């Protein structure tokens, strides 16, 4: 029953039905206040609803339950970034990717915060690291290409955007023959 309700809450969250997702998560939280999956989902729901204090609260509760939970640090980083507290956001994103070196969303969040903090070279490295784990991330490749272009590194930007174009064409060609 617990897992079924958590799965339902995840589906509601993905369907942008935050009200019902929150209602079901709160039911689950009352049953087990230590479940980090529920805490992370509550953090994400509150973040999407711009309730940053509550999002931070549930991220912090998740971290207390499991100090090695990279996703909780990333969620907390999102709150800090949204509040304009870039040093705190960067600290949390860096902790997230240290804890989980293959955490692609963590690198993407880190890169965006580094751009906001005007540390462009470190942002390039964060995007490249994300692409090393999954080279098929078109949005990341596009963001990297745009950043390289803004830095005047046009040849690198062209290579990044060409790869993106080829991957896009290949995927659409595959669907054309299905």
Mind telling me the CATH superfamily name of the domain at 1-66?
Answer: Tetratricopeptide repeat domain
User: Which CATH architecture of the domain at 1-66?
Assistant: Alpha Horseshoe
Mean pLDDT: 90
Evaluate the radius of gyration: 18 Å
Portion in beta strands: under 5%
Give the low-pLDDT segments: none
Number of helices: 10
Give the C-level CATH assignment of the domain at 1-66.
Answer: Mainly Alpha
Return the CATH topology of the domain at 1-66: Serine Threonine Protein Phosphatase 5, Tetratricopeptide repeat
Q: Could you tell me how far the N terminus lies from the C terminus, measured between alpha carbons in angstroms?
A: 39 Å
Helix-strand string: HHHHHHHHHH
What form results from the Cα inertia axes? Answer: elongated
Query: Pairing-aware structural class of the strands and helices?
Result: mainly alpha
Main β sheet profile? none
Helix content: over 70%
Describe the fold and architecture:
The mean pLDDT is 90. The chain is 81% helix and 0% strand. The chain is elongated and about 55 Å long. The chain has a domain at 1-66: Tetratricopeptide repeat domain (Serine Threonine Protein Phosphatase 5, Tetratricopeptide repeat, Alpha Horseshoe). The protein is mainly alpha-helical and 178 residues long.
């Amino acid at each position: 029953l617990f897992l079924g309700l958590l799965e339902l809450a995840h589906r509601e969250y993905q369907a942008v039905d935050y009200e019902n997702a929150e209602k079901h998560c709160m039911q689950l939280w009352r049953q087990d206040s230590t479940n980090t999956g529920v805490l992370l989902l509550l953090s994400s729901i509150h973040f999407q609803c711009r309730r940053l204090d509550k999002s931070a609260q549930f991220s912090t509760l998740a971290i207390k339950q499991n100090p090695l939970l990279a996703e909780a640090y990333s969620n907390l980083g999102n709150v800090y970034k949204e509040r304009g507290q870039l040093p705190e956001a960067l600290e949390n994103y860096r902790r997230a990717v240290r804890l989980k070196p293959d955490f692609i969303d963590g690198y993407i969040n880190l890169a965006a915060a580094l751009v906001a903090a005007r540390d462009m070279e470190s942002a390039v490295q964060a995007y490249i690291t994300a692409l090393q784990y999954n080279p098929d991330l078109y949005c990341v490749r596009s963001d990297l290409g745009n950043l390289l272009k803004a830095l005047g590194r046009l040849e690198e930007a062209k290579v990044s955007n060409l790869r993106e174009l080829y991957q896009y064409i290949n995927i659409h060609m595959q669907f054309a023959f299905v």
